[in-house]
């Protein structure tokens, strides 16, 4: 496929993932909503059912998150985050797909790794004290994401001299920190962190120049699904950003993204299949 730089397989806990086509990571939120608020069992059951649906729709891996990281969101304490995530992780442990946990807390990282997480997805880029030590000696994959500031304040007038260079340098420096702690290169994934301390203009510049941002040494993960950068262009609320999100995911795939983090797995898989048929033909 065009611009798909050959990257070695990703070491991802119990799995070794060939990255010869873009993989689809389905988002599994275990955060309170209007139905499940206050009922932890109900909330876990809903998340597990949703995860199974995403796998049927063709998700290659799942990203389980117990802390809302939307702009303006406040954090939750580690015990509460674990109460949300662990039942879901345990129920899905043998689903056949790698399980990622979205967390920036070292104590959560250590415990979910003991419970079989295959990947740690840290929107904080493993910058919290103890984060690198918590993951270094495992065999899990590590998604290192760029964020400017913290979720509560990150969208307060973000500014950069050169967003591509600055995000790229952060990611390269983060990867060097992981390598210096003994993390094998084949465990590392880099993510520009769309929407985390960036304007819509920054986000589209980063997406357009994805190969320059993430470089060629490590595979990339792109999360643009339903984000405000889609609303900024389409004028639509989060509930109606499917078309825009699929277009952005495809634009990332064309630029060599290795993992696409999405809410709408079935539609993204369809788009990738059609794109692949155009580029590579249809097998008889
Ligand atoms: C991302 C994420 C992302 C990675 C969220 C949302 C906000 N993890 N977690 N990359 N976004 N690696 O999905 O709207 O872009 S939470």
Please name the defining characteristics of this protein.
single chain, 284 residues, alpha/beta, eight-stranded parallel β-sheet, two-stranded antiparallel ribbon, 10 strands, 40% helix, globular, binds ligand 7PJ
Short summary of the structure?
This protein is an alpha/beta fold and 284 residues long. The protein has ten helices and ten strands.
Describe the protein in words.
The chain has 284 residues and is an alpha/beta fold. Helices cover 40% and strands 14% of the residues. The chain has ten helices and ten strands. The protein has helices at 40-56, 78-92, 106-114, 131-136, 163-180, 200-208, 210-214, 228-234, 242-254, 265-280; strands at 10-12, 15-17, 23-29, 61-65, 99-102, 119-122, 141-145, 188-191, 221-222, 259-262. The strands form two sheets. An eight-stranded parallel β-sheet has the order 8-7-6-5-4-3-10-9. Helix 1 crosses helix 2 (78-92) and helix 9 packs across helix 10. The chain starts with 9 loop residues before the first strand and ends with a helix. Ligand 7PJ is lined by residues 69-70, 102, 121, 123, 143, 145, 191, 193-194, 221, 223, 227, 261.
């Amino acid at each position: 496929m065009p611009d798909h730089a050959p990257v070695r397989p990703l070491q991802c806990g119990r799995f070794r993932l060939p990255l010869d086509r873009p993989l689809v990571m389905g988002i599994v939120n275990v955060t309170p909503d209007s139905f499940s608020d206050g009922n932890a069992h109900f909330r876990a059951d809903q998340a597990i059912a949703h995860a199974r649906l995403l796998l049927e729709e063709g998700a290659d891996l799942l990203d389980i998150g117990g802390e809302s990281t939307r702009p303006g969101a406040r954090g939750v304490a580690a015990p509460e985050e674990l109460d949300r995530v662990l039942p879901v992780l345990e129920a899905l442990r043998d689903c056949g797909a790698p399980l990622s946990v979205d967390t920036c807390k070292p104590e959560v990282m250590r415990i979910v790794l003991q419970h079989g997480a295959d990947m740690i997805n840290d929107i904080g880029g493993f910058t919290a004290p103890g984060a690198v030590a918590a993951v270094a000696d495992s065999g899990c994959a590590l998604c290192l994401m760029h964020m400017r500031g913290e979720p509560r304040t990150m969208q307060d007038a973000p500014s950069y001299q050169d967003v591509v260079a600055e995000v790229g340098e952060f990611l390269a420096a983060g990867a060097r920190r992981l390598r210096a702690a003994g993390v094998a290169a084949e465990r590392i994934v880099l993510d520009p962190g769309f929407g985390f301390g960036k304007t819509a203009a920054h986000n589209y510049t980063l997406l357009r120049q994805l190969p320059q941002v993430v470089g060629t040494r490590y595979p990339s993960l792109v999360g643009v699904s339903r984000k405000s950068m889609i609303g900024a262009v389409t004028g639509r609320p989060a509930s109606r950003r499917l078309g825009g999100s699929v277009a952005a995911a495809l634009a990332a795939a064309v630029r060599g993204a290795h993992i696409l983090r999405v809410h709408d797995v079935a539609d993204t898989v369809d788009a990738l299949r059609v794109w692949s048929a155009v580029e590579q033909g249809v097998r008889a």
